[in-house]
Amino acid sequence: MYLLEFQHERDVLIRAQVRTDCLHLLFRQSVFSVTGSFLGAVMLSWLCWARVDHDVVTTWLALLSASTLLRVLLLSSWFRSPADLRTPERWELKYWLTLVLSAGIWGGGALALVGPDDVLTQTLVLLFAVGMSVSAVSCYSAYRSMTIVSIGLVLLPCTLWLLLQPGGTQIGMAVASLVFASFVISATRKLSEAMEKAFYMKREMEYAHRIANHAAQTDELTGLKNRRAFFRQAEQTFDHCKRNRLPLSVLMLDIDHFKRINDSYGHQAGDQVLRQIGAVICDSIRDADICGRLGGEEFGLLLTNATIDVAQTRAEQLRDAITRLTCEHGEVITASLGVATMTAHDQAFQALLNNADKALFRAKAQGRNQTAVA
After folding, report:
1. Do both 205 and 255 map to the same domain?
2. Is the pLDDT score of 209 beyond 80?
């Protein structure tokens, strides 16, 4: 049951990411198509200028200019917006509105240019409308519904008009246009499915990599970093603080009499104590701190930008929180802690950790359930 829920959550997450990927592709592909559709209308108007009503052409280009400007502003707003705000919920509807407006104006203008007795103009208009349909396939390949709507608004008005004409030439052109549109619509389904599958596989691989990477760095029992991950990140942080002369402190924590818990109540009870300690440590750290299980019942915490006084206070708070834990076996859980801070003589993280380890040994030797400072 848990596995099914996990797989469902993973699928929902990946599909949301795929939808976002499709949106990003849509906006990137729209840069040239928006200007291309306007330039296509200008070229068509130039070719038909001597054969059509100039007022119709002027009105069409004016309306198309306004819709193109609106789409350019939309694209500009999208590219200038922060990455976390480029979501389908925020942008898909806006894009749909500008697309329907622009495609509707293009198709309506093309219909207005068609002359009832001018086969050459009819051919030119239909040819350009088909060209716009082809560009729609390349632009909206990730959104099949947008491709179909765009083709319908641009190509169908003049195609249906030609289909209703008495001449055989016009009917033949209209039928050819409809056949072309049917093939394109069929192809868009396969194209959009292939792109969605490619995006899904990419995101699925990224998700699997993150899971594997997290598992390789995490202690399975406590959820903290394992020893290798703790030391790797701690050494990087040590070098950074050393270069920038930032205070850095480390805590070493050891559960008191942990062997007795295992021997008296079993390893399951011991594992439960380790999980509770891990939860307490997670609740006590800041985002910049590093914590990990170093082995057995021993834990390490690296406190960035923390002086020895701050570290000692944090250690006492942590020790007090551990004593308030309630366990199934009824015994009070305590821990001993050693605290050390980076000095000018410490040339490596291991030296700082050794100082904290010596302080921890002294805390245990002095009776346990206390904090000792190096």
Report:
1. no
2. yes
